[in-house]
Design the sequence.
């Protein structure tokens, strides 16, 4: 039921920003404009007659047309009366950006929050928040920041922390994450994590579910929702407030009671969901499940590096639970018949530093892709040591030479390093080269990871998810 | 003895590159020029009369002056005769970049390698390699790449894989790593990991020792060297060839017999050395020990983020073994007496999203620094969500406002995220902002990490090292 309620509530035709101003933070009106919201937008604030080019109304009741959705940016003390106005105006849902409620730890603020809930219930107004950024839904042009992509995609996220959601969107965008809807829901006074989880489980636009959770209001309902969701779609969870200090921080952040970690982690894993250690890892899993259809087994072919880094790549794949099989005899024989002088020396991982003698870098990757002993391929783009060999900024030619432009035989994960840069190096060839490569791969819907360990961990998670799905 | 031998051998006054050419890979002559080597450089190759502006001699014996150090870039088969020339010429040490010896796995190549050793022993020539890049010693202007910094520093590295050393130098440079000497030693035919470890232990220029090791020739000598070294200097080890596939790759890389991992890890830890999982973590430890004098205890004050990321920061510090204490009462009282309205709400980590009311972001960090309950500070630079609040590209002003320009009270670790970038974003404000901040901090000898988890792990390692040192 919550699922269909949210389905209706989260597609408003008209939005009023109560507490609108000319120098807003966050800039909700700017976000709606940048993302291309097609519905009516109203500014409400008794102190202005115009805000950012919009006529400004002194209060909600003066707004001429109907208002489906309110964004409240007014101080906490003024929220109860505004909720009454929402009820009178027939507003369906109020997103309370307004904060300083229960999270301050002060009894009077917690009481004020309860008063908001009483009035909302009485007036039939549903509430998102308080103390949150609310909805990002690129398909409808709704969102709290114009920095977010306008393009939508298969990933949904419910995040108790809107700051975490914001970071995640910006972290994930260059790696190809695109979203169906993201909700930062803060103190979860009315709608909570269970409601969003159930909604995303049903949502046909959503293929992958991400959740950042500090406290859970109803553990039993959450776990049963998680079990149901994880049978259908991958669910990735980051838990905030794992330790003593984190739990204390969570309490003063969203007034959450973060439970003890060990039972949490066990219950989440048992429900079939995937635990991520932080937002970076959540991005890794998010792109993996949105780009990779499935991986049928753990046998990985690795190419693109060499020497010690190649040895470490093999180690990291094995540590993540992949199997790095020796190069099959068929491939060695093929190499031998072609007169390749390192046919008996080259292995898996393919050591790029020993390649030569007429063997193009990508050829072995393709051979492994065509060989039935391999289930998945990992290719590593190195910070190139020999720039002059590659030529000025030709990412496309490089990808061709690496054979990465046309890998179709098996799922492919690519490692492109993130690099700390000195300001003096900002114009450097390497940065542009690596960014160009990453952008081209992402455009081709290839998942890209900054390290081998992270790619390998994701490959394993994809294998496990689809295996588990087959079994149920 | 090996220590003093290496001390003498690794400061040559004259270097000959045997197998020099106009299109060399790697460009040893270019490296010596770029790094400013002051001694004599000779090119040797019977096919040329001039190479890269240097007169080229047909063989070593024709070189007019004395030659201390030879870099051999000729094919493996020609190396034994060249070693005889070295002996006749009085060359002290031959670095064999030449490869395709035992690492190919072919018996005749292993035999050739043994022949090289026999002739070297007979002629009194010491050997580095084969199959490696040899020496980077910025203080003398020696190195195999002009991309390396000319400035020297307190970090030494011995690396069985020169590719790993190369990656590490380039990874570490923008984060402030500077080196006394780095040796890529490949197949370790003559000098091996024990020799370099013992040398670095004695070396007054070296404060931190890094080692990338695949196989160890003499386990007992290595562990006793490690125990001795780790009492004096932090020793960070990355082990390549941990698993089955990695060990196989190590064999075909440097002909190493990578031992089983569990006993290795236990022995290394027992010897007091620090195990790093990969090169990224090795850079983390390297900058930590070169910039931080000591940390006296686990109590950390955290500032600079907020919301969910702040909660996760607290979790990650606790997971790494730090203690995230509540904000002490003295600080709350000081805040109250100054009329700060969130005096009872703000905590540790300091939630930047609730700051306001006349409290500058860095002030709480300084208060924690002055308070005896804290031993170490971690400050987190976020990808700024509100660019207009900061203004165009003013990293210095931002650091001032964060109070990071003058933290002297306690050791400070700063988190500056690495960000995957889309090529279209390359000119973006955020990239330059983060790079500018990182560069300024590194110039002030502040260690910078891409994530809180990695900063926290290093703080813990520094605490443990100095505690252990006090006890011995």
Sequence:
């Amino acid at each position: 039921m919550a699922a269909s309620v949210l389905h209706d509530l989260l597609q408003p035709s008209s939005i009023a920003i109560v507490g609108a101003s000319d120098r807003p933070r966050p800039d909700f009106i700017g976000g709606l404009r940048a993302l291309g919201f097609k519905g009516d937008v109203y500014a409400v604030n008794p102190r202005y007659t115009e805000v950012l080019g919009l006529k400004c109304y002194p209060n909600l009741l003066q707004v001429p047309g109907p208002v489906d959705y309110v964004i409240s940016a007014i101080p906490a003390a003024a929220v109860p009366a505004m909720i009454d106005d929402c009820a009178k105006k027939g507003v369906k849902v109020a997103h309370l950006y307004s904060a300083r409620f229960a999270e301050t730890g002060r009894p009077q603020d917690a009481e004020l929050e309860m008063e908001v809930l009483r009035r909302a219930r009485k007036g039939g107004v549903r509430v998102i928040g308080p103390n949150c950024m609310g909805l990002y839904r690129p398909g409808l042009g709704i969102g709290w920041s114009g920095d977010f992509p306008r393009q939508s995609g298969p990933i949904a996220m419910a995040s108790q922390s809107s700051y975490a959601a914001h970071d995640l969107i910006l972290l994930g965008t260059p790696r190809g994450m695109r979203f169906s809807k993201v909700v930062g829901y803060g103190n979860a006074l009315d709608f909570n994590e269970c409601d969003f989880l159930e909604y995303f489980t049903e949502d046909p636009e959503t293929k992958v579910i991400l959740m950042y959770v500090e406290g859970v209001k109803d553990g039993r309902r959450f776990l049963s929702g998680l079990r149901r969701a994880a049978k259908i779609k991958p669910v990735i969870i980051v838990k905030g407030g794992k330790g003593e200090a984190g739990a204390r921080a969570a309490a003063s952040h969203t007034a959450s009671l973060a439970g003890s970690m060990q039972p949490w982690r066990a219950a989440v894993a048992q429900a079939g969901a995937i635990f991520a250690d932080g937002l970076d890892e959540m991005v890794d899993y998010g792109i993996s499940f949105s780009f990779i259809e499935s991986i049928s087994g753990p046998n990985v072919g690795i190419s693109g590096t060499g020497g010690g880094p190649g040895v470490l790549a093999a180690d990291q794949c094995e540590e993540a639970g992949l199997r790095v099989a020796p190069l099959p005899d068929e491939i060695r024989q093929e190499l031998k018949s072609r007169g390749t002088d390192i046919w008996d020396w080259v292995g898996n991982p393919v050591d790029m530093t020993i390649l030569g003698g007429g063997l193009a870098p990508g050829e072995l990757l393709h051979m492994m892709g065509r060989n039935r002993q391999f289930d998945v391929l990992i290719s590593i783009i190195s910070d190139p040591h020999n720039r002059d060999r590659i030529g000025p900024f030709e990412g496309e030619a490089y990808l061709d030479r690496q054979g990465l432009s046309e890998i179709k035989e098996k799922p492919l994960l690519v490692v492109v390093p993130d690099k700390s840069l000195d300001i003096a190096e900002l114009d450097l060839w390497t940065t542009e080269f690596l960014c160009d490569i990453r952008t081209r791969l992402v455009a081709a819907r290839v998942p890209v990871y900054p390290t081998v360990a992270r790619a390998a961990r994701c490959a394993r998670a994809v294998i496990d998810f689809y295996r588990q799905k087959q079994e149920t």
Remarks:
- Chain A has 17 helices and 17 strands.
- Confidence is low (pLDDT under 50) at residues 387-393 of chain A.
